[in-house]
Records
---
Amino acid sequence: MKNLGIKIALYLNYFVFAILLNSVGIVILKSQKNYGVDEVQASILEAFKDMPIAIVSFFIASFLPRIGYKKAMLIGLALVTLACISMYFGNSFDNAKILFATVGVSFALIKVSVYSLIGTVTENQKEHNALMSSIEGVFMIGIALAYFLFPAFNNENDPNSWLNVYWLLAGLSLVSFLFLFFTKFEETQVTAGANFTDDFLQMFKLIAKMLTVVFVISVFFFVMIEQGILSWLPTFNTKVLHLPENISIMMASILAISLAIGRLVAGIITKTINWIWVLSFCVIAAMLIVYFVLPNVVGLEVKTINTFSDIPLIAFAFPLIGLFIAPIYPLLNSIVLSSLPKNLQSSMTGLIVIFSALGGTLGSRITGWLFKNEGPEKAFYFTLIPMFLLLIAFFILKKITSKNEI
């Protein structure tokens, strides 16, 4: 199959980083328990993860083709391998900050490379939509695995036992590095601007377009919603449902699995149904879950819970919101990227990564503040605001793209 080795490398890299990036919710929970920090202090880990992604993407996205996508991804994988080993030996909140900062820098290199290479290994928009959705689906499978990996290494009688998972994560990063290293890449299709200044200015020229403004705002709102829920669901399960720590973490996997299924299914549905109707239905369904299901979860009369069978069925319903918010991100990205010439896709990917990072940071910080000041019972209700704004943005984006403004 054409470009099979490259595609496998893209899947593998994204899978490894899915586990690392989205372990932040688990580390937030462990930091409160092991390192004595409160909710607002713990939420800073999201910023240490996301701000390096935004900063590095801003400076390297447009001229990354000059460095070479393969070389950039190898650098990222090498850095996180070392960071995982450092976390094991460091075992402190400061080391957790360093870990996520390193993961953020590395993921900027990985994501810009992966998104740009999708355009070089696909022939048309349908192929682009399918590969984008499936890669994002694999990303969510990695997230789901994280919610089982960490509890597998966690012994509540030994507060340091969970750190052993970082040896496994270092090993996965090394395997991904070696596979990528021996995979033959043809990057001649990817071109850069005439010089560094031209490459850098491309991003600003894209920002000037109304389409780009609406698009990046949509990405910002979505990631604010997704990361706010993903990062704080383990804490919600512990403080509201009073679940044991390991069960709280594993329960959060339902959200990640729902996201994975939603993204994989979206790649099929959008072949026959226009994206605006798919996304509108999804965000309205998500709003209904928050409005009608969440109050029943919060209002549960909690009894002693030791296993999954002790958990009331309604508690499993809220994480299913992932089925409906899942298609939003890959479809938005694919709609815009597949309409751009290949030499502009790296610059646009930089904007996607930057605003995704900012949305993730702000979403987690706001949710952490709400958990502390409004109570964990009320925090998730505030996701209704960005959901409503996102719905409006979809129709504005549809109007602009129908004019072929790109």
---
Amino acid sequence: MNDLTTPWGEYVLTRYPEDPRDPLRAWDGADAYALEHLAETGADLTGPTAVLGDRWGALTTALAGARIEQLATGRLVQITDSYLTQCATRANLNRAGIGHEAVRLASTLATPPQRLDVLVVRVPKSLGLLEDQLHRLAPALHPGTLVVGTGRTTEIHTSTLSLFTDILGPTRTTLARRKARLILTTPAADRVGAAAAGTAAPWPVRYELPRDTGPLAGRTVVAHAGVFSAERLDIGTRFFLRHLPERHGPDHVVDLGCGNGVVGTAAALANPRARVTFVDESYGALASADATYRLNLASPQEPAAAADFVLGDGLAGTPPGSVDLVLNNPPFHSHQATSDSTARRMFAGARSALRPGGELWVVGNRHLGYHAKLRRLFGNCEVAASDPKFVVLRCVKN
């Protein structure tokens, strides 16, 4: 929990889920810089406004407070790929005494607003996601739309600025402040509004898997923008696919943090009697996993095996003792920061969800030391496969 001082007031913000051991803040200098700029330039926040890529609701909460000060009647929309961001935003709005009706929470796959007078963009880690969203939002912009992007200096590159320029219009960046920079774009009449309505977004994409990927060899992956391993299979998942456990029978299998769904789809192909649940906090990941699964298992002659697609915080909503096998390639970054908090939650959730005798299989870089955490949690952990870079670990719930 930490305080963010803005021109419109002070807000106590938290990440989600709240973890007293997590040293990372719910806002940073890039958020503060964007808010200061909007206040210093006297931006009119009373019209239709969107916040794209907010991380933990800092920008949305502060702008909702600013709009109350300006007696705004237009809708404020937060657009995010993250379920956890939405949860954090609701909690932070509630803590600030701002009713949820003040903000509409939308996913990156939802129908974009019809018109925007202000667009604030927190630059995402994925250039593909930024490209996709700028294409989606360009028809809602007009030459008078105020477009302000923000990010830490290490997050804004020439390629970032080029996307704003190519898709929306002339773009410049500011001097650094708080180790952050702003991106200021003037929408061009020939690139936004009606001129952009017919432009096809480049996502989702498809690609074929290599021949050394077990049951999925040579099959096709569907990936939406921003999803991990969106344009090519990462080497960790590739290693995992070659060493998945051999299972038979009506198991309940969970692909935890499913991304584009290749691991769960491979498990379903290897064991057609299994029921596979794909879990992720990313809207794009769930859509990608669904598309990948349907493409590789569904046909008029042979309907797809049972599958569930669950948006949420890991296995938090899964009944204890209901799962036979959990497959997991946990992230070790939270946006740009290195953190094992997500992995720890995933491991604990897996232990709760597994039935006695159920197994958790994890792939990770050797240097992350997951074996020590898993041994403390499960009381056992063995190496199922390894190479100089990656290790596949197996834990059994006793």
---
Amino acid sequence: MAEFTSVGRSATDRASRYGSQLVKHFTHKDLEGSWEDGRGFVRFSGGVAEFEASSDALIMRVVSSSEEDVARLRDVVERHLVRFGTRDELSVTWDSGSEN
């Protein structure tokens, strides 16, 4: 089975805060996920979103079995992050995606 991946980056010095907030938000909607030591994940019906906080950015990786689901996951993760980070004017830059 093919696996599609896309990696996004959002420049922020509060990456751990935003990663934790994303995981907490989605797990409150009864999705499986966790956040620990600057890394986390959320398992959606269409795939997985992984988060990693660095000193200057939140790195997001979405993985799914279809290009369409990767696009949906990118959209969901980005919309929530941008909304949570309105004060910091966060944005996300995604790679073009790839099949593994």
---
Amino acid sequence: MQAHQSQPVDRIADVETQLRTLLRDVLGLTQERVDGFDAGTALFGALPELDSMAVAGLLTEMEDRFGILIEDEDIDGDTFETFGSLLAFTTTKVGAKAG
């Protein structure tokens, strides 16, 4: 896992691009593979790279890169089900921080 400087997301439209970059970096996926994700792309249970340890690392990186705080009670079984559900969760958290 590489160390990155925290880069606040100024616009909600940037969240998807940043999330794809984060998944690529943390899970070691290729850019082409991440670019192919759509809202229905299954994540947890479908990507061998995304195990429970990777989820912990991903959450930490999300907090750092998006400048958000993720509490344990914020996460449920649906959060990492699909790329769309993870994007919706992240967009909500970033939007709450901005508001």
